[in-house]
Amino acid sequence: MDRLVIGGRELKSRLFIGSGKFADESIIGDIVAQTGVEIVTVALRRVSLSGDGDNILRCIPKECVLLPNTSGARTAEEAIRIARLARAAGCGDWVKIEVISDNKYLLPDNNETIKATRVLAEEGFVVLPYMHPDLYAAKELERAGAAAVMPLGAPIGTNRGLKTKEIVRILIEECRVPVIVDAGIGKPSEAAEAMEMGAAACLVNTAIATAGNPLVMARAFSQAVEAGRLAYLAQPGETTEYARASSPLTGFLRS
Ligand SMILES: CC(=O)[C@@H](O)[C@H](O)COP(=O)(O)O
Fold first, then answer.
1. Which of 193, 145, 141 is CA-nearest to residue 169?
2. Complex confidence, ipTM
């Protein structure tokens, strides 16, 4: 049976979404209802810790697993502090570690991410680290206790697609934990491509939130992720250099 289990929870949907950049965040509830998305990531700095005011958590249905992320952290120490704050504020045990000190490309710092993962996994968090695709870092994250690894497809918010495809393919082949492609995925076809390679799931924010019709785009992503997974399970046929006829080309005119 094709099961995805992370942090002891079996997930039916392999599309994870972000909650940033929506013109109207109340649409997140409709997306969850229409696509079955179960994981929604939220930047802790957008959560009102006093529970009042304009709290993004109001827009995230209760049945979802909340995946607080440490957006804004520039070091492992800052990420650890944000994760602990999230748990203390009742956001649960899951955390997506983002440690970024590069303001231009928002590339994750793998070394700091590994340090934070080690500490937080030891403290019982379900740790999903956002990472630059690199085999040694991915294996180190596994050893540090990561529940999954989340390599980027392209820089956050660029909608440029699966630019890191060849390395992500290696991570999928070599990692024991699920590989979730996160960031930069701009179109459903790119999510399907990641899933066809064997990615366990995709996390998409910008492409959905900034679409002309975010709800329809979320449905398109949901179907693409499912189609890509099915194609992976179906084991695509081999690719060849030269044409091979689909039906016999000879024999018609012989007597
Ligand atoms: C919200 C979140 O976690 C993003 O930082 C995530 O990495 C998604 O990236 P895109 O916005 O490029 O889909």
1. 193
2. 0.95
